[in-house]
Design a protein that fits this description.
Number of domains: 3
Helix content: 55-70%
Structural class: mainly alpha
Number of strands: 0
Order of helices and strands: HHHHHHHHHHHHHHHH
Distance between the termini: 83 Å
Largest sheet: none
Number of helices: 16
Length: about 260
Amino acid sequence: DALESAMKHGLWGHALLLASKMDSRTHARVMTRFANSLPINDPLQTVYQLMSGRMPAASTCCGDEKWGDWRPHLAMVLSNLTNNVDLESRTIATMGDTLASKGLLDAAHFCYLMAQVGFGVYTRKTTKLVLIGSNHSLPFLKFATNEAIQRTEAYEYAQSLGTQPGCLPNFQVFKFIYACRLAEMGLAAQAFHYCEVISRTVLKDPHYYSPVLIGQLIQMSSQLRLFDPQIKEKPEQESLIEPSWLVRLRHVDGQIK
């Protein structure tokens, strides 16, 4: 019949239109035949598998030369988001795991950001992401490079511009390390400003942070404060008064102790 002929000759537009006028079983059969006619690595397959409630094959096969580019598959998932948020985030995170296993670190991290996996800590090796574009299985100094901290800070800033800004608690310790490096290079005013920004973030939810970090922040801030150009311009009595955020941080530190 016309339907079989259309499918036989690959005229899927005609076949699907005809099937839509028939019973639901026939329509489902034609849809399945059409999906099976596509190459397994076609990004459309990824969408169809996702829509049928299955994790797409692309999640565990991407990053392979024979499979092709991983990006169209991720794009298909992101541009066809449904109400099944759990499946979608697992699909993207698994894609990240697969790419990471093939050594494609930047690609894996991009997937983790899209899946909103969250930033973990360096000491926990099961963590998927600590600093963007840096491998946390490396020794600490090779891992925590200035470039990796700057990349992650750019992401943090982009997040702050969103409608639901959220901080990255595990990242604040790296910003503090960066502040220490600035101070060592003689950039005291910039280092002090970093301490202020970190402190204001810490003060929003102090229970997220290590007492050691809070103590180090206070120590560093009180030393760097004297190098702040704004303080040098003030009369001597005023220059002795600590900024409100540092006073609040000392109060939090006292409560913890």
